[in-house]
Amino acid sequence: MSDNVAQLSFEEAMAELESIIRKMESEGVKLADSVALYERGVALKTRLEAMLADAKMKVEKIQLAPDGAPTTVPFDVE
Which of 17, 31, 34, 35 is most exposed by smallest CB count within 10 Å? Predict the structure, then answer.
């Protein structure tokens, strides 16, 4: 497990978060270990959300202008 969450790729962070969830759902995890896993999970979740927000800002929707020429506009999921 890399200590620096900021250096992880999206895929690495997601895989590690999934691993943490599996560990926390298993029986026999000590309280101190659960707290450490939770803190790491929060850091990974924050990193993943930031990476998704950054990707969302880069995505553009292609549409046709009134004259028929293709143009791009920011993608709005709402």
Answer: 31
